[in-house]
Design goal:
There is one protein chain. The chain has a single domain, classed as Metalloproteases ("zincins"), catalytic domain (Collagenase (Catalytic Domain)). It has five helices and four strands; from the N terminus they run E-H-E-H-E-E-H-H-H. Strands 1-2-4-3 form a four-stranded mixed beta sheet.
C-alpha cells in the first residue's frame, strides 16, 4: 500500500490535504506515516533514536526502501514558525517536506533548502 497515513496525537488542528499533496509530489511510490506528537514524546524519541537530548520539531526515519515515518512536534514548530516568516500551518508543511526529502536521501544544505521552498510554494503559493 502506498500513500500517506496521518495520526494526530496532539490537540493541534492540522490540514491533512496539504500533507497528502507534498507526499504525492516528493515520494509518490512510498508509504509514509506522519505522526503529530507532543514535546515529551518528541524529546524521548530523539533521545532513543538519535541520542540527542533536545525537543526536535521534526524527525524522519526510513523503515525500508519505500516506507518511512515522519514525526512533527507542533509545539516545537509553533515556537520557530515566525523565525522562518511562516504561519504555523505552512511551517509544519515545510517540516514535513524536509522530512520527505531526508527519506528521499537529501542531506542538509542549500540544494535541499531550495527544493523545500520550491515545493512549499507549489503547494500553498507562498
Amino acid at each position: 500500500m502506498k500513500g500517506l497515513t496521518i495520526r494526530n496525537l496532539t490537540r493541534q488542528a492540522v490540514l491533512g490535504s496539504l500533507f497528502v499533496k507534498a507526499s504525492k509530489k516528493i515520494l509518490p511510490s512510498w508509504e509514509v506515516s506522519l505522526v503529530f506528537i507532543g514535546e515529551v514524546r518528541a524529546k524521548r524519541l530523539n533521545k532513543e533514536l538519535r541520542g540527542k537530548t533536545y525537543t526536535p520539531n521534526v524527525l524522519s526515519y526510513a523503515l525500508n526502501e519505500k516506507h518511512g515515518e515522519i514525526f512533527i512536534c507542533p509545539k516545537s514548530a509553533e515556537k520557530q514558525a515566525s523565525e522562518f516568516g511562516l504561519s504555523l500551518r505552512d511551517f509544519m508543511l515545510l517540516l514535513f517536506i524536509h522530512g520527505l526529502l531526508h527519506l528521499k536521501g537529501y542531506r542538509h544544505g542549500t540544494t535541499m533548502e531550495r527544493y523545500e521552498r520550491k515545493v512549499l510554494t507549489q503547494i500553498v503559493g507562498t
